[in-house]
TrEMBL record:
CDD domains: PRAI
Lineage of the species this protein comes from: Bacteria, Pseudomonadati, Bacteroidota, Flavobacteriia, Flavobacteriales
Keywords on record: Amino-acid biosynthesis, Aromatic amino acid biosynthesis, Isomerase, Tryptophan biosynthesis
Swiss-Prot/TrEMBL GO biological process terms: L-tryptophan biosynthetic process
EC number: 5.3.1.24
Similarity field: Belongs to the TrpF family.
Gene3D superfamilies reported for this sequence: Aldolase class I
Molecular function via GO: phosphoribosylanthranilate isomerase activity
Record protein name field: N-(5'-phosphoribosyl)anthranilate isomerase
UniProt cross-references to InterPro entries, sorted A to Z: Aldolase_TIM, PRAI_dom, RibuloseP-bd_barrel, TrpF_fam
Reactions mediated catalytically: N-(5-phospho-beta-D-ribosyl)anthranilate = 1-(2-carboxyphenylamino)-1-deoxy-D-ribulose 5-phosphate
Domain N-(5'phosphoribosyl) anthranilate isomerase (PRAI): 4-202
Length: 209
């Protein structure tokens, strides 16, 4: 099971998290976020880790600027970006991760137009914010998932959720679960990750494999 650590902000902390070798590191380029990466310097990160820019209804040219400046490998789109927007971005040879806020009434038919233009979906908890609401959604609704598109599981996942994740990964609805996405439950403060807790979480996931 792949791991994405999102909401990275501070250079030393980025280097410490990168040393744990997650598969993805997420950098939020949304000014309203407490974890906004801004114009910070990005340290050298191992090539095995995919640098992911997180955007919310950002003008396409701004996303492209960030891709080129930071040499991003993936763009995670958390707003109301259209399939046409995703298709234009895909031309820049990066992975497209389209995020959807999920609750019990989520309509999985909404995914269909995005199938040809995205590499992955990401399912986060529906709340007041575009992402990072800090609590999980009911994963059993993913038994309605009609697609074969691999997805990231996100939303309020922390060390206490390990047992629930391991149970989920044994169920049919996890068949296309590609990665676990974590953020706020591993923080000392917004954007600053607790390395020891992250290490413990990653080791438990690896033990499952």
């Amino acid at each position: 099971m792949r791991l994405k650590v999102c909401g990275m902000k501070y250079q030393d902390n980025i280097e410490q998290v990168a040393a744990l070798q997650p598969d993805y590191l997420g950098f939020i380029f949304h000014e309203k976020s407490k974890r906004h990466f801004g114009e910070n310097d990005m340290p050298q990160i191992p090539h095995s880790i995919k640098k992911t820019g997180v955007f919310v209804d950002t003008e396409l040219h701004e996303v492209i600027e960030k891709i080129n400046f930071y040499h991003l490998h993936a763009a995670q789109l958390h707003g109301h970006e259209s399939p046409e927007y995703c298709e234009k971005l895909k031309a820049y040879n990066i992975e497209i991760i389209k995020a959807f806020s999920v609750d019990d009434s989520f309509n999985f038919d909404d995914l269909k137009p995005y199938e040809p233009v995205c590499d992955y979906f990401l399912f986060d908890t529906k709340g007041k914010l575009p992402g990072g609401n800090g609590y999980t959604f009911d994963w059993t609704i993913l038994n309605k998932y009609p697609s074969t598109k691999p997805f990231f599981l996100s939303g309020g996942i922390g060390l206490k959720e390990v047992d629930s994740i391991l149970l989920f990964l044994e169920k049919p609805e996890s068949k296309y679960c590609y990665a676990i996405d974590v953020n706020s439950k591993f923080e000392i403060e917004a954007g600053l990750k607790d390395i020891e807790i992250l290490k413990e979480f990653k080791n438990k996931l690896c033990h499952f494999e």
